[in-house]
Write a structure and sequence with these properties.
single chain; 4-stranded antiparallel β-sheet; about 30% strand
């Protein structure tokens, strides 16, 4: 038997109360999703479960996946991530039932670390620890569940549907930080400013252009080797541009604070912050040997121009955060390539005004074809907060 600990992910803007439920170790991922359906209040069809590397099939057995994860990452806690579309809504830890002299201890669990956790030797010394006790609803009766050594990361739990919890410890534990061992290994927090430094030390696996400000992507440049069978020669590009820097007549070349230069696929991304710098880099690459091409980000991805009026619920909020909320509310929408070219205040008397409850801005931008197709399927509208924003595409 396993005790499943469900807690909010760092990407989820609405923090949920931590929840516990039991499941058989030999159950499949599909049975786990059925248990999660009422806990997360999500339709079963929208729940997907991932390890840190890949999506887990519904037919996989939970214990098999845990065993494989523990073999790959010896000594670390196995964490599953629950996604709705592109948004991580929760994380899962698994507590394994303790055994003493071969007999399962019904109310005692330990955080799953490796295959030795259920042996009597693994329990040695743990029972002396002062451990919190939780009450787990099971049918008509309620029984105590003791978690040893590794306690729930959210400290004292509030009462949740189908679960009553009370702690015997008077000391509340701190909210989990990004450096916690149970934190999302990828630590992708899309609700924050793109440029904000993550404090978890884990890699951000999004493509580099997704980690730039939407306002700066228009100044992005993609450098590619003209030999279609070869990757970009990053060393040659950097050496050539560095040499030109020394004799550069432009008094100030400005590059993005988020991502100034990074490789993705077989290409090199360079992000400037103005047209003057972008034009200088394009000219510099034209004289590079071996020959390379340098295309503006918008042209490289063949992005499409459009516009919509955006209510500024929180004036000053970065577009990264606004677009992240759109992704949460519009399933399968990905805004990584959206390149904003202008933001114009909308007059309160303008017929295009969405609401008079807050300032409005006309956002002009370029988006990718996938985004265009998805928006078109939604009657050319984007859901944002309480509104359906009309998107106008250029013919």
């Amino acid at each position: 038997m396993l005790l499943v600990h469900v807690y909010s992910s760092f990407e989820n803007s609405q923090v949920m109360d931590p929840t516990f439920f039991e499941i058989d170790a030999d159950d499949k991922i599909f049975e786990l999703k059925q248990k999660l359906e009422p806990v997360l209040a999500l339709p079963l069809s929208q729940i997907n479960i991932y390890t840190s590397e890949e999506r887990i099939s519904d037919k996989e057995v939970i214990s098999d996946v845990l065993r494989a994860q523990n073999m790959k990452n010896s000594g670390t806690v196995a964490v599953f991530h629950v996604f709705q579309g592109n948004t991580c809504v929760a994380n899962l830890n698994f507590h394994q039932q303790l055994h003493t002299e071969g007999n399962p201890q019904e109310s005692q669990y330990i955080l799953t670390l490796d295959s030795c956790c259920s042996s009597s030797s693994a329990v040695s010394g743990l029972l002396k620890d002062r451990s919190p006790t939780y009450k787990l609803a099971a049918g008509d009766s309620t029984r105590s569940v003791i978690l040893h050594n590794n306690r729930p990361r959210f400290g004292i739990l509030a009462e949740a549907d189908g679960l009553k919890c009370e702690s015997t410890s008077s000391t509340e534990e701190e909210q989990p930080s990004c450096s916690s061992s149970v934190a999302n290994p990828q630590c992708i927090d899309r609700t924050k400013d793109c440029c904000q430094q993550q404090n978890c030390g884990k890699p951000d696996n999004r493509p580099p252009y997704a980690r730039t400000m939407p306002e700066n992507r228009r100044f992005g440049l993609v450098v590619s080797n003209l030999d279609c069978c070869a990757d970009v020669d990053s060393e040659a590009v950097m050496a050539h541009i560095f040499n030109l820097f020394e004799s550069c007549s432009i008094t100030e070349l400005r590059f993005s604070d988020c991502i100034s230069m990074a490789k993705f696929g077989s290409n090199l991304l360079m992000v400037c912050v103005d047209d003057q710098t972008a034009n200088w880099v394009i000219s510099a690459v034209d004289t590079l040997c071996p020959p390379h091409s340098c295309l503006p980000f918008i042209k490289f991805f063949d992005l499409l121009r459009c516009s919509f009026v955006l209510p500024l619920v929180r004036p000053g909020e970065p577009l990264c955060s606004i677009f992240a909320l759109m992704e949460k509310q519009n399933l399968e929408l990905v805004t990584d390539k959206w390149s904003v070219i202008s933001r114009i205040p909308v007059d309160p008397c303008d017929p295009d005004l969405v609401t008079d409850l807050c300032p409005n801005e006309m956002i002009e931008l370029y988006i990718d074809e996938d985004s265009r197709d998805l928006i078109s399927e939604q009657c050319e509208k984007i859901v944002y907060f309480c509104w359906h924003l009309k998107v106008n595409f250029e013919c």
